[in-house]
Design goal:
five-stranded mixed beta sheet, 25% strand, Immunoglobulin-like, alpha+beta, 378 residues, elongated, single chain, 14% helix
Length: 378
């Protein structure tokens, strides 16, 4: 019989020690404070049993040109984006073309009321006035051009003579014309019934134009359109005025004519009165400081207008019309005292200013007498 204290133990040696060790580890794990789960963890932490997950600082990728280009190429836009971009570009172009981006621009403007007369002659035969048409740049069948812009496209260059023809269904170029309301065309080189070669010619206030493609009729202009032999368009001699060469003038007086925002009723001369002495030859330098065209006509010694002794200011191109910002000149001389009116006949039918001639006439230069016969040195 075995001793009572003899006991048999089966199993691995040291099992109790290992069990205690495990218990201590488990107890320590339970007592360890749980760290907050980091925002970024390693994907291998799922398989790491019994270990606390730790945060690893992720390196910031460097922004390089190649990386940026790959990101741009990787962008994909919806199909409507290119269409919207094209619409925006086209809309911008239309705004530039039609909504007055360049400021006020040249006259006439909306609200202006300009009138000019016109006549058309074909191979020596005068033509009837054109029938009227709808618009702000038009005619009423009365031989007048009406420039009364209603929309932006009729302002400035939209009021050119060539555009006036187009608005009525006609055509006017440097070499060809089709009158509004007709189908027949007249071209340079065509012949008239008498066999003479005809060319298209345009004159303004009696002055022949070389290029009328940019011509805008001014208030008070007289436009002549001739299709016929070229000599028919030659300027006729003017017998309604007295012309004194500028070289004979002994002094110059500046005369300014202006208006308020194109209002004809406000047209005025500055100075309103000019003083001369009898026999003095004076050059009047007329400056148009207004917004519409003006002209200046001085009554001659007879005191009446529209007679052959009148003095008329002309612009640099020889026209009687002085456009806004331009100058004109006229040389006057009166041998007797008196008051002589001058006016703008296009917009001021009544005389408004005066040339006052008073004082003593300048002494006449001594006349040279021929030496008597037989006198030495003769």
């Amino acid at each position: 019989m075995l001793p009572s204290r003899l006991r048999l133990r089966f199993g691995r040696r040291g099992g109790r020690k290992e069990q205690k060790a495990r218990e201590r580890r488990d107890q320590g794990r339970e007592e360890r404070p749980t760290a907050a789960t980091p925002a970024h963890v390693s994907p291998l932490s799922f398989w790491r049993k019994g270990r606390t997950r730790t945060y690893r600082e992720q390196p910031t990728p460097r922004q390089t040109l190649g990386r940026t280009w790959r990101r741009i190429r990787g962008l994909h836009f919806p199909p409507w984006v290119p269409v919207a971009f094209i619409i925006a570009i086209v809309s911008g172009i239309l705004v530039i073309l039609f909504i007055e981006p360049w400021g006020e621009g040249p006259p006439p403007h909306i609200g202006d009321d300009w009138q000019a007369t016109y006549s058309v002659e074909i191979c020596g035969q005068g033509q009837s006035p054109f029938d009227g048409w709808v618009g702000g740049v038009t005619t009423n069948g009365d031989g007048r051009i009406y420039l009364q812009p209603r929309i932006a496209s009729e302002e400035g260059k939209g009021a050119r003579l060539v555009k006036w023809f187009e608005y009525g269904g006609g055509k006017l170029t440097q070499t060809e014309m089709r009158m509004p309301g007709t189908r027949e065309e007249y071209k340079n080189g065509d012949t008239c019934d008498d066999g003479s070669e005809a060319v298209l010619q345009v004159s303004v206030n009696g002055v022949k134009m070389d290029d009328w493609s940019d011509y805008i009729p001014q208030h008070g202009d007289d436009v002549g359109i001739v299709f016929g032999p070229e000599e028919e368009a030659e300027e006729a001699p003017q017998e309604d005025r007295t012309v004194i060469p500028e070289r004979e003038a002994t002094r110059t007086v500046e005369l300014e004519i202006s208006d308020e925002e194109g209002d004809e009723a406000t047209s005025a001369f500055e100075p309103p009165s000019i003083e001369l002495t009898p026999g003095e030859t004076v050059k009047l330098l007329v400056k148009n400081a207004g917004e519409i065209s003006h002209s200046v006509r001085v009554a001659g010694p007879d005191g009446e207008y529209d007679t052959s002794d009148d003095f008329v200011a002309t612009s640099a191109d020889g026209s009687d019309v002085i456009k806004p910002g331009e100058e004109g000149t006229v040389v006057v001389r009166f041998d007797a005292e008196g008051e002589f009116k001058f006016k703008d006949p296009t917009v001021l039918p009544e005389a408004s200013s005066t040339l006052v001639v008073s004082g003593e006439a300048p002494p006449s230069p001594p006349e040279e007498t021929p030496a008597a016969a037989g006198t030495p040195g003769a």
